[in-house]
Amino acid sequence: MPNIKSAIKRVSVTEKKTETNKMQKSAIRTVVKKAKAAVAASDPAKDEAVKTAQVVLDKSVAKGYLHKNTAARRKSRIAKANNAAK
Known about the structure:
mainly alpha; 3 helices; 83% helix
């Protein structure tokens, strides 16, 4: 445990940020997984699920949770699967 006041604060801030990042990344994974499942099951609402996943991925890039190429790759794979399912 650090003794210096600024180091103590850094530990606290880092813990909060880590927790926030975990929650956000978990939410992103959940939305992407739902979109993939909807496409695989030929669900009638699959287009809406794909659209939602794309919006969530774009917002996650804007907020810095994902790298832009990672989000683009995931969006591309979902769209490709959706188009193949049609």
